[in-house]
Amino acid sequence: MKVLLYFESEKALQNSGIGRALKHQIAACESAGIEYTTDPWDDDYDILHINTVGLNSESIIKKTRNDGKPVIYHAHSTEEDFRNSFILSNQIAPIFKKRLVSLYTQADAIITPTPYSKSLLEGYGITLPIYAVSNGIQLSRYDYNEEKIKAFKKYFSLKDTDKVVLSVGLYFERKGILDFIEIAKQCPEYKFIWFGYTNRVMIPKTVRDVVDDYPDNVIFPGYVKGPIIEGAYTGANCFFFPSYEETEGIVVLEALAARQEVLLRDIGVFDPWLVDGVNCYKASTNEEFIEKIKGIVECTLPKTSEEGRRTAEERSISSVGQQLKEIYESVLKNH
Predict the structure, then answer these.
(1) No. of H helices and E strands in the chain?
(2) Is the pLDDT of residue 12 over 60?
């Protein structure tokens, strides 16, 4: 059994969650002993596992179908998480949804990261088999590492007395960036760092304004990878993710794996696998967020980090690899 893992515009997507999903799929296949290729010109494959929705993606589906081979679509995108992102995304969203349904329904089966995103797809009227499989997490990258923490603190010239609230994401309103800035204004005693970047040409003026003019206690370092951000996950005092919509949130898995205290917006995607006060904290309003940030940073709330790590371990790359192997074998058998 050989699988073609296909990602259109891989270079453009490499800094996004979908880009990390490719790396995780490769690692998952390797862990489960699944032969794979990422070369669309390699005709020697048995299953197409496709992850993107561009014009080239449509062409490779057609080619695979003509060759009599099965297709598995990895549904990373929904109408709901397309909204409140790029300029005109809300106006385009209904058209985007129609395209998603048109593409997804050309598959033999669909993989999506969570039961929540599975329920959204079923709500679109899709009746294909849909499997909820986490994007997975490379646990060892987020083990405690003193050198990475030192690199993080040196990069931002942080003192040992500085208290840091961390977030990671694109510059999207959907990600809660406007709330992040407003909360930072009300907590000047802490430093707020937002890792990630989106070209300003592509984002609405309301978001451009806050990433161009923000409080002194906020840092926008852009896209940073390697030891700096891995040290940040461990070395910060709180990972704060106020996103309004996700299909899973790979950065949440990264923070959990790093044994960080995690604070999330209380939205459907995090149910039932993340539980307030058990393996994370949740809130719904800025007032609640501020109260819980202070409780986490000042250590007046109970720790949830060990339970959070256990949650990440359940979504390890090796576990994902075994799940993918079972799905591939089932789809091949039934094709």
Answers:
(1) 14, 12
(2) no
